[in-house]
Each structure stands twice: as structure tokens, then as C-alpha cells.
Design brief:
Length: 518
């Protein structure tokens, strides 16, 4: 284990006793909409729109256990992928692939996933958006040490969390609305570099409400995991301080605490891919899995108006009714479930998904090529799902969470309410079943994520919810110097959970808080 874990982990264990000084609410990147610095690739960038879009394979259960849960096995291992044509990139992969296998699941069908760690580094798996009991949620100190590590290594780390060697079984009740979830590494202080090396995959939940809708299915339903990366001269993923190959992961360097941005955009692990589509309606499950990059996605058509996005769902479920957008702003951790109708375009049209927030190479995302006419019986339903409004009790917000730059002693970092992550001190004890109003206040941009249950955005500043806030959210894009109020209600599972910034470098630099449900 590196000194870095002891540094921030140890400070956390002191209970945040160190005095903290918050700096003024401004910083580099504030005007660009998000914070972060670009790491430049040391290889020539590949030609855009050449590599076909990969679709991650669907995980297959290996059986059913005594409780009726479907059992899956995942082996986390190092493997090489051809991401840039002709080059080899080592990845830390679930089953050795990036993105990991997609879990395609049904509401109410519980599953057990046995994760085996054959990587050289400890890991923690979190199901983002999962309504999961605390002991299976992926607490950042519930480490799984690599297979073969000795028990006294475990005992050494055992003071920090529930540390095991080799394997851990995660039980997911999976009793939640149809939605696009994702799973990723969540080890304290190392989430950024671990996710960057490949530890992320989709977990889709389906239900009867969604089954009854005339939505595009099969090949016309695509999960799209969007992230940015930089590449070193040997084709490996470049990350600041990552100079020891795959044998270890460095933590986030102080100079990169704003966030690591890459100059290559990957979709499902391929650089600026192209996908051939029917002239028909498609359902795209957009996920921003980037460490720190925020995108403004637009579908451009040569010589024509942009193709609109029809949003049908957000992070944690379907909307009540579809919502049309010309652009979609998507922050790290967020998902947008959208329909795109290619049937309005002539065969041969090339539709480019661009990122209007970046003037450089990250300004392009991927391309669709309309290649054939095809029948289409899908429709955009006028009503999608019942969305129960969370009715907040009268009065002021219950709790305020301030997301600020802050230093602990002479170490730089990020804080929530002036403290850095402390696994043993809860910033909020919440009664199950009660609706509360939470206020998120930022200095610079912070995408705020809450574990266990989704929330609903009530207002931004003095206005109503923003254009991208509809429905059940588990991550909200809080822009610089903004105040966002959300209604939140936790159910079913009592225990220790998290609120944190989903800019992974901010998260690793301690912008994470323990909360407790009672
Ligand atoms: Cu996607 Cu606590 O994380
Ligand atoms: Cu999460
Ligand atoms: Cu942040």
C-alpha cells in the first residue's frame, strides 16, 4: 500500500480533527463549466470515425443459489486491448475487458456477483444507482485484496474496513425501477486511476412498466459509455504519476486534483467510433463514465438542423413523459436514456455526436451512419411511467452540504462541509422513509452523487429544476457557485452510505462524506 492511503486515510481516521481552511469560491476551470486539466497523448491520435462501435458482451449467470438469486462470477484481471488501431493497451478489466460485461437484469430478480480479484491492486466494487444493503454497496474500505495476499496483510488493513483476500460476493436485491446503472471501482483514494484503467461496466434493470412501452429493442437499444483518456507512447493509458506499469496504481497527485482530462474520447472503449444504423428509431443509454469531463452532446447533421434527443429516462428510471432536447449536458456519473430517430434522414447520412464544450479533439464523440431503410414499429409514448413526486416537508432545507476546495494541514484537497472523508463520522443521520430537503452548494463545478436511493431536483438557485434535472436522479450536475435543492428519501436499508463528488479526482482527494440511514 502506498503512503497515499495512509495520508488521507489516516487523516480521515483522526475524525477530521485537523483544522480546515476553505478557500474562496473560485478556481481554474470555473468558466469552462468543470474543473480539470488535459493530459496530452504521446501517440498520434487515431483517425476519427474509423473504429466500429463495440457493444460490451452480456454477462451470463452460472447458476441459481438456494435463495433463488442468479449467480454470476466476474474475474478482475489485467489484459491487453487494442484500443488504438495497431497498439496494445493494458487494462484493468472486469473479466479482463473494458467496458466490463453488461448485466442485463430484471426488477425483483436478485443476483449475486462473485468478484474475484486477480489484479495486482486491491479493489472495491460499487453498483452505482443500486438500491443495495450497505454491506454489499462497495464501502471504500471494504477491500478485496488480490488473490494470494496473506492474511496478515488483511489483518493490517482490517482496521479500516471489512477486508478480504481474493473474492467477495455482492448480493443485489435488484428491486428497483428499470434504469441504466453502472458498476465501477470505488476504493478509497484510488477510484480515479482504477476506473481510468478500465474498471467500469453497465448494469441494466428492466421491468414490466418498460416492457409495455413500444420502445426500440434488440440491436436498436445501445448502451454508450462515454469517457476521455490519454495514451502514453507505448499505447498504455496515461495517468499522472502512473509510471510503474500495471503493478501498482498511484493515487491522485496534488497537481491533478482538479481532475484528469484526456484528449481521446472513447465510446464503449473505442476511440471516436462509428456505428451503422437503420433508418429507424434507436434507444441510447448514455453514460458519462469520465473521471472529470463534462460534455454538451449534440447530434449534428451535414447541411441540416441538429437531430433532437428525446429523453425518456434519467439516472434512476423512466420520466413521466418524454422531454425533447437540442443538447444534453452530462456530468461524470450521470445517465440519460434517450431516443433518436434516424428515419427522418436519407440513407447515407452521417450523424456526428459532438461535444460542444470542447474546442479541441474532445469536441467529437462518435458517428452514426444511416445505411439502410428498415421497418420500425417503435413509437415515442406520450406517457412513460408513474413518477411519484417526493413531497418535501414544509420549512427550510434540512441539511446543507458545501462542496469546497480545502486544505488539510499542508495537503491540498477537497472538502464537504469543511471536512475530508472520514469513514467513521457521519455527516448526516437520516430516518428511513422520511423525505428530506438537501441543499448542495459549490465553489467550482461538482457533480454530486448520493448512494442508496435516488432524489428529485426541486430547484436551482431561485429557479425551478434545470433542463437536465427531470425524473429520478442519483447524480446532479452542480455548476460553479450554484445552490441546488433536492428532495431525498431513503428506504429499506439501514447502514453506512456515501455522498460524494463524482469528479473522481475530487472524490479521491477526499470530497466524500459518510451518511447513515437509521
Ligand atoms: Cu459512481 Cu459512489 O459512485
Ligand atoms: Cu454510487
Ligand atoms: Cu467535485
Amino acid at each position: 500500500m502506498t503512503a497515499r492511503l495512509s495520508r488521507r486515510g489516516f487523516l480521515g481516521m483522526l475524525g477530521g480533527a485537523a483544522a480546515l481552511a476553505a478557500l474562496p469560491a473560485c478556481g481554474p476551470g470555473a468558466t469552462a463549466g468543470s474543473t480539470g486539466e488535459v493530459l496530452t497523448s504521446a501517440v498520434p491520435l487515431p483517425e476519427r470515425f474509423r473504429v466500429p462501435l463495440p457493444v460490451p458482451p452480456v454477462a451470463r449467470p452460472v447458476g441459481v443459489d438456494g435463495t433463488g438469486a442468479q449467480v454470476y462470477r466476474v474475474t478482475q484481471r489485467v489484459a491487453e486491448a487494442e484500443i488504438l488501431p495497431g497498439m496494445r493497451t493494458p487494462v484493468l478489466g472486469y473479466d479482463g475487458i473494458f467496458p466490463g460485461p453488461t448485466f442485463d437484469t430484471r426488477r425483483g430478480q436478485p443476483l449475486v456477483v462473485r468478484h474475484r480479484n486477480e489484479l495486482p491492486v486491491p479493489t472495491v466494487v460499487h453498483l452505482h444507482g443500486g438500491h443495495t444493503p450497505a454491506e454489499h454497496d462497495g464501502w471504500p474500505l471494504d477491500l478485496v485484496l488480490p488473490v494470494g495476499r496473506t492474511a496478515d496483510r488483511a489483518a493490517h488493513h482490517g482496521m479500516l474496513g471489512d477486508v478480504v483476500v481474493g473474492e467477495r460476493e455482492h448480493r443485489y436485491p435488484n428491486d428497483q425501477r428499470a434504469a441504466t446503472l453502472w458498476y465501477h471501482d470505488h476504493r478509497m483514494d484510488f477510484t480515479g486511476p482504477a476506473v481510468y484503467r478500465g474498471l467500469a461496466g453497465f448494469h441494466i434493470v428492466r421491468d414490466e412498466v418498460e416492457d409495455a412501452l413500444p420502445l426500440p429493442r434488440g440491436e436498436r437499444e445501445l448502451p454508450l459509455m462515454i469517457c476521455d483518456r490519454a495514451f502514453a507512447a507505448d499505447g498504455s493509458f496515461a495517468y499522472p504519476g502512473l509510471d510503474q506499469g500495471m503493478r501498482s496504481l498511484p493515487g491522485v497527485e496534488d497537481d491533478w486534483m482538479e481532475g484528469v482530462l484526456g484528449d481521446v474520447v472513447l465510446v464503449n472503449g473505442a476511440p471516436w467510433p462509428v456505428h451503422e444504423v437503420d433508418a429507424a428509431r434507436y434507444r441510447l443509454r448514455l453514460l458519462n463514465s469520465s473521471n472529470a469531463r463534462r460534455y454538451r452532446l449534440v447530434l449534428t447533421v451535414p447541411g441540416g438542423p441538429d437531430l433532437p434527443w428525446v429523453q425518456i429516462g434519467s439516472d434512476a428510471g423512466l420520466l413521466a413523459a418524454p422531454l425533447e432536447h437540442q443538447v444534453i449536458d452530462i456530468a461524470p456519473g450521470e445517465r440519460f436514456d434517450v431516443l433518436v430517430d434516424f428515419s427522418v434522414l436519407p440513407v447515407g447520412t452521417e450523424v456526428t455526436m459532438v461535444n460542444a464544450l470542447d474546442p479541441g479533439s474532445a469536441g467529437r464523440v462518435m458517428r452514426f451512419r444511416v445505411v439502410r431503410p428498415a421497418p420500425d414499429d417503435s413509437r415515442v409514448p406520450a406517457r412513460l411511467a408513474e413518477v411519484e413526486p417526493l413531497v418535501p416537508p414544509a420549512g427550510e432545507p434540512h441539511r446543507t452540504f458545501r462542496f469546497n476546495r480545502g486544505d488539510v494541514g499542508d495537503h491540498r484537497g477537497w472538502t464537504i462541509n469543511g471536512t475530508s472523508f472520514d469513514p467513521d463520522t457521519s455527516l448526516a443521520d437520516i430516518r428511513l422513509g422520511e423525505t428530506e430537503v438537501w441543499r448542495f452548494v459549490t465553489d467550482v463545478h461538482h457533480p454530486v452523487h448520493v448512494h442508496l436511493d435516488p432524489f428529485q431536483v426541486l430547484r436551482r438557485g431561485t429557479g425551478g429544476p434545470g433542463d437536465f434535472d427531470a425524473g429520478w436522479k442519483d447524480t446532479v450536475d452542480v455548476r460553479p457557485a450554484e445552490v441546488v435543492d433536492v428532495a431525498v428519501r431513503f428506504t429499506d436499508h439501514a447502514g453506512r452510505f456515501l455522498v460524494h463528488c463524482h469528479n473522481l479526482e475530487h472524490e479521491d482527494m477526499a470530497m466524500m462524506a459518510t451518511i447513515r440511514t437509521l
